[in-house]
Design goal:
The chain is α/β, with parallel strands linked by helices. The chain has 14 helices and 22 strands. The radius of gyration is 23 Å and the shape is globular. The protein binds succinic acid.
């Protein structure tokens, strides 16, 4: 088992580490060895965390934005000072290559720095009243206690991105991280203590009874806002549960990102970008390229260059040097992807490279399929694995129609140089985020989020605080 001062193995509630009589194992997906045994919290613990957050709310929300910012900046600094250690813990529990894990720690921390500043820029409004003896004033206030459920694919950043905005706005926070990857969340809690975040403001409850704990976090009367990152299927269930107390919600759900390469594109740039966008985190990212659409006149050139780049990707332990693709999170995740590939080949897709397990059952080779159509399983589903299906198209209109032919609307990418086409396609794509000659779209300054069944709300940017604030209108009469 791994040892580190930042490796904690119990939930963190009201500033205390809370043990439990039961425990569960956190498994390294590279070698299936136990990284840590973690106390298995339950629904009562989730409720304790909510009460702690409720009790801490008055004092935290009454602090000035400046005072909250000072504490958040300290948290940011501590995270960056411990970047290497946090990245090692992340790679051990999640599997992604260490360089990517370090990138995730910096990415997560950047939201804390961003919102520490942004919290100082919450503005209200005055509005012309309908009569001269009245004044209308609009103020913004923290929504209250926030509960979050976060996924295993970004065990640090998905928490940091939500908690930063919530805490900066003056809310208090309870998170239930994925049980596959709780250690990064608990390490964040340890650093929150060192940063001086008061007891009850940031709570982490870790437990395997996701249904009961999720029920508490979506229905408790003291929770004002619920935020989730994960699959659309689970998001729909949680949304339903939130309806009973009409919570404010934000949902960052699944995606099926098209990556369109037009005949006027810089093909080498498109190849490089498509490889990164498809294979980072072994394809287990909501904004990963899911379908590559290539105009017929450049199909051969693009495909040859793309397959050659994919074949140079090295699979292995995330802790080794020069590894581009780590293991998938579990064996069953690999099996799901394998099935999508086999079913698509049966439906007429052509396997150009990959298509098998390697280095044991948690690894799936970087795979490319050609002759794919949008109705094949590999294109119609969110793949969440290292498989790139290539779909050919002839016209701009056809590319737009195929790209939009999905229930998802998170991210889309396209490569083109013609300025008219760039505007036409950018406006026609039905997605919350569009990368134009770019696939590195995630950063703290930008509003991350989707439309259609990819969810609602935005994380990051000047818009991100609104998800954690209420608008209050003051009507002042008798003037
Ligand atoms: C996600 O997969 O949900 C997050 C990806 C990102 O923030 O870039």
């Amino acid at each position: 088992m791994y040892h580190s001062a930042l490796l904690k193995n119990t939930s963190f509630i009201n500033g205390k580490w809370i043990s439990s009589s039961n425990s569960f194992d956190v498994i390294n997906p590279f070698n299936n060895q136990i990284v840590a045994k973690v106390a298995d919290a339950n629904a009562n613990n989730a409720e304790q965390a909510v009460i702690a957050a409720k009790n801490a709310l008055k004092t935290w929300s009454a602090k000035s934005a400046h005072d909250r910012a000072m504490i958040l900046k300290k948290w940011f600094t501590l995270i960056m000072e411990n970047q290497d250690e946090l990245a090692t813990i992340l790679t051990l529990e999640q599997g992604k290559p260490l360089a990517e894990a370090k990138g995730e720690i910096a990415y997560g921390a950047s939201f804390i720095e961003w919102f520490a500043e942004e919290g100082k820029r919450v503005y209200g409004d005055t509005i012309q009243a309908p009569s001269s003896d009245k004044r209308i004033v609009v103020i913004k206030q923290p929504v209250g206690v926030v509960a979050a459920i976060t996924p295993w694919n970004f065990p640090n950043a998905m928490i940091a991105r939500k908690a930063a905005a919530a805490l900066a706005a003056g809310c208090t926070f309870v998170v239930k991280p994925a049980t596959l990857t709780p250690l990064s969340a608990l390490a964040l809690a340890e650093l929150s203590v060192q940063a001086g975040i008061p007891a009850g403001v940031f709570n982490v409850v870790v437990g395997t009874d996701s249904q009961q704990m999720g029920e508490v976090l979506t229905t408790h009367k003291s929770i004002a806002k619920f935020t989730f990152t994960g699959s659309t299927a689970i998001g729909k269930i949680l949304l339903n549960q939130c309806a009973s107390t009409v919570k404010k919600v934000s949902m960052e759900l699944g995606g099926n990102a098209p990556f369109i390469v037009f005949d006027d594109a810089d093909i080498d740039a498109a190849v490089k970008s498509a490889v990164t966008s498809k294979f980072r985190n072994a394809g287990q990212t909501c904004v990963c390229t899911n379908r590559i659409l290539v105009q017929s006149s450049i199909l051969e050139e693009f495909t040859t260059k793309f397959v050659s780049a994919v074949q140079s990707l090295k699979l292995g332990s995330g802790l080794e040097e020069n590894i581009s693709v780590g293991p998938m999170i579990t064996k069953s995740a690999t099996t799901d992807v394998k099935k999508l590939v086999i079913d698509s080949i049966t439906a007429g897709a052509e396997l150009l490279t990959g298509g098998d397990s390697e280095l044991g059952s948690n690894f799936y080779q970087a795979t490319v399929l050609a002759n794919v159509t949008n109705d094949m399983p590999i294109a119609a589903n969110e793949v969440f694995g290292p498989v790139a299906p290539i779909i050919a198209f002839n016209t701009e209109q056809e590319a737009i129609e195929v790209a939009n032919d999905t229930e998802y609307g998170l991210a889309a990418y396209f490569y083109a140089r013609d300025i008219g086409r760039v505007w036409r396609v950018a406006e026609a794509l039905e997605f919350g985020m569009v990368g134009i000659n770019d696939s590195a779209i995630s950063n703290a300054a930008a509003p991350f989020g989707g439309i259609k069944q990819s969810g609602n709300g935005r994380e990051g940017s000047k818009y991100g605080l609104d998800d954690y604030m209420e608008i209050k209108y003051l009507s002042m009469g008798g003037i």
